[in-house]
Amino acid sequence: MQTIDNNALAQIIRSLGVELFSDKSSYMVYNAVRNLESRTHYVDKGTLKYFSARIVGGSDQCAGTVFRLVESLPNGFQGKRGFRFVAFDVFGTVLNEREFFTSSQKATNGFYTWLGTFDLVGHYREAFATRATRAKRESDEMREAFNATFKAE
User: Fold this and answer.
1) Please, is 118 exposed, middle or buried when counting C-beta atoms within 10 Å of its C-beta (0-12, 13-18, 19+)?
2) What is the distance between the alpha carbons of residues 151 and 108, in angstroms, rounded to a whole number?
3) Distance in angstroms (rounded) separating the CA atoms of residues 134 and 2
4) β-bridge partners, 88
């Protein structure tokens, strides 16, 4: 399997017209919202309120190809809060299974452990292939609809 470094992967993604994650603010909530808005509803005000979630950390990772979010949420019915990390790709897709940790630092450490086992290039290879297939199907459907509407007589 061919390996590629994060900077090369980021350059490829950028050349395809997809915006990478970046440091938009030192204020972590604003940074998370600015990076993830229009990609996912995960950090929308209503979603955070519904789940009683609080953003306690977040930053771009892997040269902007991954966004790491750490959140605090109610953990069960005992009234205690737990922490978990959530990793996003540039399309807003959640990349990891979410598990609770007892502190934000443990959640952050859990992210780096997870990242060490995650096939980032493989993920993006599959994501772009899926998007290309969907775009071709939609294009074919539009062409058929157009041709059916404006048949040559």
Assistant:
1) middle
2) 59
3) 26
4) 67, 94
